[in-house]
Design goal:
2 strands; two-stranded antiparallel ribbon; 14 helices; mainly alpha
Length: about 300
């Protein structure tokens, strides 16, 4: 009897469901992107807070993946390699968080480059670093090391897919160089400067964030959460039901994040759906390649 093939820790119908929603969103946005933003855009304080710090939950997956690698390699009598990869996973979370929302944290301390003390910047880094310690201890307690190979595959898949999707997103932003909606709002005639996602002008963006709308980088971060069921699948008290709950949490988080990106005038619907779709496909492909075929029961 063959075990049903899972993708990212859940049945294939869940995978196809996400693909379907993303494609429907892309088709809808291709005709109605501007109209949707005109109806939904409304910058709010709570929306700004979520936009700045919501990425934290996704980035917790990096140190969690590092712990999977550490426990798996330790079981294979190579704890030093595992420790190095654990540190790399923790560092990736700190580095990416500082890159995406570190400036917002420093604003809370009224930090200004050159004028403020360098120790304020150091403090912000320290706070971010500490915030990613708890996933390491939690995963150390709940992860089951009975199948070392699976642990290593899960940890490696999350780290590799995460770094790959982030860099692909940065490249695609340059390829498209699509104006953001919040930039269009500063113009006298926003409609005249609006471009659909396929109307690409490669390398126009450069370092100008106003031309980095497509695809959404924050949705690349949010879509990392779809790897959460892979983590619940290597815990001591794992079950298909818990994996589905983790998938449901990921779906809710991604939808909420997508709404926030449009609501806060940062992206269009197609930006959001493409950012999710690209990341989801990368995670699915990498995880399937690393995990291989499921073992037969018994």
């Amino acid at each position: 009897m063959k075990t049903e093939r899972k993708i990212l820790g859940v049945p294939r119908k869940c995978f196809y469901g996400v693909l379907t929603v993303c494609i429907i969103g892309i088709i809808t946005g291709s005709f109605l992107d501007l109209q949707i933003n005109e109806k939904m855009a409304n910058v709010t304080k709570i929306g700004s807070i979520f936009a700045a710090y919501g990425c934290y939950f996704s980035y917790c997956l990096y140190p969690a993946a590092g712990m999977c690698l550490y426990k798996g390699l330790k079981k294979k009598n190579n704890p030093m390699a595992g420790a190095v990869l654990l540190i790399i996973g923790w560092f990736l979370a700190v580095y990416y968080t500082n890159s995406y929302s570190g400036s917002k944290l420093r604003e809370l301390f009224h930090y200004t480059a050159v004028e403020s003390s360098v120790w304020i910047s150091v403090l912000s880094w320290f706070i971010i670093a500490v915030l990613y310690v708890w996933p390491v201890f939690l995963c150390n307690r709940v992860i089951d090391d009975a199948d070392a190979d699976k642990l290593i595959a899960v940890g490696a898949a999350i780290l590799v897919a995460g770094v790959l999707s982030d860099n692909m997103n940065l490249w695609l932003k340059q390829v498209a160089s699509r104006p953001r909606y919040k930039y269009l709002l500063t113009l006298d005639d926003p409609v005249s400067e609006f471009r659909n996602w396929w109307q690409m002008i490669p390398n126009l963006a450069g370092s100008n964030d106003s031309y980095k709308s497509w695809p959404s980088g924050n949705m690349t971060i949010a879509a990392m959460m779809f790897s959460l069921p892979m983590l619940t699948d290597v815990t001591r008290k794992r079950s298909d039901g818990k994996n589905l709950i983790a998938f449901g949490i990921a779906c809710f988080f991604v939808v909420l994040y997508g709404y926030n990106r449009i609501h806060m005038t940062n992206h269009f619907l197609t930006d959001v759906c493409f950012g999710t779709l690209f990341t989801y496909l990368i995670y699915a492909a990498v995880s399937c390649a690393f995990l291989g075929e499921p073992k037969k029961p018994g």
